């Protein structure tokens, strides 16, 4: 008989939903939203529902595989684990543990997924990833300005008079925030959307502001100039709680509004109107992550933070420079979980540059790559170099559920469980502050095993098995230790399914910032201490007519590769009912200029690579913009990351995935 159980979404997503999962005879039948979950309220997206299809898919990896003479052959777990652990032993003895590179991302937001780091730390410390393709530039930027990237709790938006959605594709990527927006709008709040693409959120907005990609910092500067000209700034906040305001004045006085309007391609009267909106408090800004995936991404977020600060919208109900909420992740005891103090050796590769670093690494060169919770061949920029790098290493081990582009390249593929086949608890530091519990509901198919089982088996063979001789409950308790005194335990989480974390609901209400000066910093003292200027800049993307006119002549169009509607990155394309096709969305002016029609087959290229796909015309988007949704597999026409650049952002910790010029032509 079918029975419904509570569970949780593991996907890397803003919303971290609670689930109702129907199980019949050890099989997942249906995945729905948990009506009792405070954010989910019974509604989930297609990606969540498709976890049923993914779990039951005949394409699931079921047995350990080893590549022999270019072909995968099924081997036993014993053979796979013995061979991999022997290689790990030999590598450590001969080259040192740093000769192993751990390539990972955050495909699964379970707390126990962090135990991969426990394994590699106990092994002796490996070459690790630093930075993030996803949100790195903005997190670092808010670290400089506030001392931390913290957001307001979801319901606080109902206190806002004005809500500015700055480059977040809310309807598509953050659906439960969209519901809150609708509620706020019903109560009379005005919604503004700043985005180069006229997306579904823009359609519901009171005003859509079309902007040239990568120019958000300059728009913030223009609005600040108007706020100051009209004397709308919050003098009290600036004088009492900020540092470096004189530097902002110097910066803004060095450029005219006309120039800012020309560069952002936003009319001056819009800047004036937005100045008044920011002064009509409380005004909340909700930044997305797309707009910081540019060379100037960190600086763009800093200029938006500065705008929110001078208008006095920080630390007040209904205000805020909302980006991510790191308070959530900071609630757990990661050092104990990962045994951070156990590593003896240590080396870091920036996540963007992992391919180049692998190809050039010396002392030691990379001998083995282990991939967990990631699909770097599809998701990391400059795929052609990534392919070359991952193919160049003697041993590539990929722990996966599906035969992805990365898995295809592997020497060993180890089949792993999906969310409903193991117990964990799930959280996301992107939007809300609730943690969800997910029990084991069904057995894994074939011989698929959890990541934790794999680490435990390898640890036994490498002589540190005792560090994994803990039950899941013991690991959970370890992670939740800092919350114990507030009454949050694994027992409570199991009983209540969803628990609210004790975070600050309105950050910076006490005006005590986590910066070295204790103030909001327009000029970063943290950066000054490192010998840098720490000043805000009026910077532009690396690939633009303002910074590289020759390149812009050859490649006149800006390529965005935003997140797909019906897939979480590369995770869902293979289970769609219809075979995916690469869709090339082009601005109307490009279509007119090149006489492109809906459905035309086109090539998009730059010096790094090319892809081919079918035209779809974007209505009302900013001129000269092309979009191809990210994540599509090679066999369906991908990867779009053939075209993107591996340069890091201005503060080194973010990506420049959308800072990408291309050309386009029809294939006859
Ligand atoms: N459906 C779906 N939802 C997802 C995911 C998914 O893969 N699919 N992934 C999840 C993850 S990991 C993340 S990081 C989040 C990302 O969530 P979002 O930040 O919402 O998504 P992005 O696709 O990165 O880009 C968002 C918006 O930024 C706009 N944009 C691009 N460049 C600029 C610019 O220069 N200026 C401005 N103002 N806007 C710009 C794009 O047009 C797009 O509307 O989504 C999460 N949710
Ligand atoms: N061009 C372009 N590139 C992008 C982006 C973009 O906007 N444009 N977005 C970037 C962003 S925001 C992000 S977050 C990254 C995401 O990059 P990734 O996290 O690498 O992307 P996913 O497609 O989610 O791939 C994760 C893989 O992990 C596997 N997996 C799922 N669960 C588990 C598990 O429990 N254990 C193990 N071992 N494996 C599991 C899945 O099957 C999947 O193949 O991509 C980045 N890349
Ligand atoms: S992918 Fe996001 S919105 Fe969809 S079910 Fe999972 S957490 Fe909810
Ligand atoms: Mo992300």
From TrEMBL:
UniProt GO molecular function: iron-sulfur cluster binding; metal ion binding; molybdopterin cofactor binding; oxidoreductase activity
Keywords: Iron, Iron-sulfur, Metal-binding, Molybdenum, Oxidoreductase
Cofactor(s) for this UniProt protein: Mo-bis(molybdopterin guanine dinucleotide)
Coiled-coil residues: none
InterPro entries: Asp_de-COase-like_dom_sf, MoPterin_dinucl-bd_dom, Mopterin_OxRdtase, Mopterin_OxRdtase_4Fe-4S_dom, Mopterin_OxRdtase_prok_CS, Prok_Mopterin_Oxidored
Domain 4Fe-4S Mo/W bis-MGD-type, chain residue ranges per copy: 2-59
Pfam families cross-referenced by the UniProt entry: Molybdop_Fe4S4, Molybdopterin, Molydop_binding
Keyword Oxidoreductase: yes
PROSITE patterns linked: 4FE4S_MOW_BIS_MGD, MOLYBDOPTERIN_PROK_2
PANTHER family, per the entry: OXIDOREDUCTASE YYAE-RELATED (PTHR43742:SF6), TRIMETHYLAMINE-N-OXIDE REDUCTASE (PTHR43742)
Family recorded in the similarity comment: Belongs to the prokaryotic molybdopterin-containing oxidoreductase family.
Protein name: Oxidoreductase
Organism encoding this protein: Bacillus salipaludis
């Amino acid at each position: 008989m079918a029975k419904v159980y509570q569970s949780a979404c593991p996907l890397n997503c803003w919303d971290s939903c609670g689930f109702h999962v129907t199980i019949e005879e050890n099989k997942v039948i249906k995945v729905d939203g948990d009506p009792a979950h405070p954010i989910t309220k019974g509604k989930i997206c297609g990606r969540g529902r498709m976890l049923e299809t993914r779990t039951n898919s005949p394409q699931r990896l079921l047995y350990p595989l080893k590549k022999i003479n270019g072909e995968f052959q099924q081997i036993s777990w014993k053979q796979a684990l013995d061979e991999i652990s022997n290689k790990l032993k030999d590598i450590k003895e001969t080259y040192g543990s740093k000769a192993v590179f751990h390539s990972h991302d955050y495909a699964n937001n379970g707390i126990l997924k962090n135990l991969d780091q426990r394994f590699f730390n106990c092994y002796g410390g490996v070459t690790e990833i630093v930075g993030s393709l996803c949100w790195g530039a903005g997190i670092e930027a808010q670290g400089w300005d506030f001392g931390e990237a913290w957001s307001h709790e979801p319901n606080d938006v109902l206190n806002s008079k004005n809500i500015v959605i700055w480059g977040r594709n809310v309807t598509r990527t953050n659906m439960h925030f969209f519901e809150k927006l609708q509620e706020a709008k019903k109560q009379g709040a005005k919604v503004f959307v700043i985005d180069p693409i006229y997306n579904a959120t823009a359609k519901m907005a009171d005003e859509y502001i079309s902007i040239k990609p990568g120019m958000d910092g300059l728009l913030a500067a223009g609005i600040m100039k108007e706020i100051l000209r009209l004397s709308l700034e919050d003098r009290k906040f600036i004088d009492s709680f900020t540092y470096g305001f004189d530097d902002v004045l110097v910066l803004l006085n060095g450029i005219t509004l006309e120039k800012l309007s020309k560069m952002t391609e936003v009319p001056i009267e819009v800047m004036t109107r937005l100045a008044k909106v920011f002064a009509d408090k409380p005004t909340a800004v909700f930044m997305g992550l797309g707009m910081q995936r540019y060379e100037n991404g960190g600086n763009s977020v800093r200029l938006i933070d500065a705008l929110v600060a001078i208008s006095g919208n920080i630390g007040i109900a209904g205000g805020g420079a909302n980006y991510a909420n790191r308070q959530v992740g900071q609630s757990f005891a990661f050092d104990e979980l990962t045994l951070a103090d156990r590593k003896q050796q240590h080396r870091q590769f920036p996540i963007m540059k992992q391919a180049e670093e692998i190809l050039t690494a010396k002392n030691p060169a990379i001998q083995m790559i282990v991939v967990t919770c990631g699909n770097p061949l599809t998701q990391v920029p400059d795929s052609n170099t990534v392919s070359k790098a991952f193919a160049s290493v003697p041993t590539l081990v990929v722990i996966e559920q599906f035969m992805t582009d990365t898995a295809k390249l592997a020497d060993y593929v180890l089949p792993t469980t999906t969310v409903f086949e193991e117990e964990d608890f799930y959280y996301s530091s992107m939007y809300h502050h609730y943690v969800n519990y997910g029990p084991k509901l069904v057995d894994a198919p074939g011989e698929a095993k959890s990541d934790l089982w794999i680490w435990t088996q390898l640890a036994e063979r490498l002589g540190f098995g005792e560090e994994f001789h803990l039950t899941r409950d013991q690991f959970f308790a370890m992670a939740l230790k800092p919350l114990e005194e507030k009454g949050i335990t694994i027992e409570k989480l199991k009983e209540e399914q969803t628990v609210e974390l004790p975070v600050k609901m309105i950050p910076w209400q006490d005006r005590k910032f986590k910066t070295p000066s204790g103030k909001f910093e327009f000029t970063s003292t943290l950066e000054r201490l490192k010998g840098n200027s720490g000043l805000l800049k009026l910077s532009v993307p690396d690939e633009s007519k303002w910074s590289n006119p020759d390149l812009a002549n050859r490649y006149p169009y800006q390529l965005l590769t935003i997140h797909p509607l019906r897939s979480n990155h590369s995770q869902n394309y293979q289970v769609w009912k219809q075979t995916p096709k690469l869709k090339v969305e082009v601005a109307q002016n490009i279509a007119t200029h090149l006489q492109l029609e809906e459905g035309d087959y086109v090539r998009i290229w730059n010096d790094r690579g090319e892809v081919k796909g079918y035209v779809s015309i974007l209505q009302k988007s900013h001129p000269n913009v092309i979009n191809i949704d990210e994540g599509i597999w090679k066999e369906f026409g991908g990867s779009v990351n053939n075209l993107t650049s591996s340069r890091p952002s201005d503060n080194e910790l973010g990506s420049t995935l959308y800072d990408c010029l291309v050309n386009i032509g029809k294939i006859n």
